[in-house]
Amino acid sequence: KQEVTQIPAALSVPEGENLVLNCSFTDSAIYNLQWFRQDPGKGLTSLLLIQSSQREQTSGRLNASLDKSSGRSTLYIAASQPGDSATYLCAVTDSNYQLIWGAGTKLIIKP
Amino acid sequence: EAGVTQFPSHSVIEKGQTVTLRCDPISGHDNLYWYRRVMGKEIKFLLHFVKESKQDESGMPNNRFLAERTGGTYSTLKVQPAELEDSGVYFCASSPGRDRGRRETQYFGPGTRLLVL
Asked: For A45-82, what is each residue's pLDDT tens digit?
């Protein structure tokens, strides 16, 4: 059974710092891994999608890596801004085409 | 282009009552998904429609939950009768359907926050 874990559960850093969010999964048989952002009272926004054959994806200040063999992914946020404050969720598409989710990391960027 | 919309945004009902949640996917998207996040837990898959057909309903918790997608457009999720443990946020998502979800991003609605008292 696929399980996705995100560490830490919460993180608070000063504005301008670079930071890393971690995601691990127990079964390497995945089609892809996605990082989402959720703002309070709003839906989920897909930030980056990494196919199982890829090692990383970049979008602006965001860089996500995937090491399928070790069951790990990281989301790197460069030069953090207060607007980056949100809950970040990691999810994998498993062999049944279902999204299996982590519990999320609540990120607070202090001005 | 309008995104995925969900109605209502919030619902507060008493145990034993019935609630119907609605999801309007992005126009032209064949895939429609329902997910749920109960307090303090991970988001869980409920079911997946391809057009009007249920492709996978393995995540539906029990027979108090009934999902429909009439004509392959909008979808409803009915909870009857509601129980306390049904409280949570119900998300809907859609995707075009060209690649059975392997490469496609799912586009999520804002969710419906359900509270059963």
From this structure: 999 999 999 999 999 999 999 999 999 999 999 999 99
**Cα–Cα distances in angstroms (integers) from residue B88 to residues A24, A104, B1, B102, B113, in the given order:** 25, 16, 28, 27, 6
Q: HSE (CB half, 13 Å, CA atoms) of B41?
A: 15
| Number of neighbours of residue B45 by Cβ within 10 angstroms | 22
Select the residue of A43, A97, A101 nearest B111 (Cβ to Cβ): A43
Contact A103 B108 (CB under 8 A): no
Distance CA A18, CA B66 (A): 45
For the segment A80-106, what is each residue's pLDDT rounded down to a tens digit?
999 999 999 999 998 877 889 999 999
Q: Which residues of B touch A31 (CB under 8 A)?
A: 101-103
Taken as a whole, chain A contains a residue count of 111
Question: For residue A59, which amino acid is it?
Answer: S
Yes or no, beta carbons of B45 and A51 under 8 Å apart: no
For B92, name the nearest residue in chain A, comparing CA atoms only. A43
Can you read off the two tokens belonging to residue A50? 């990494």
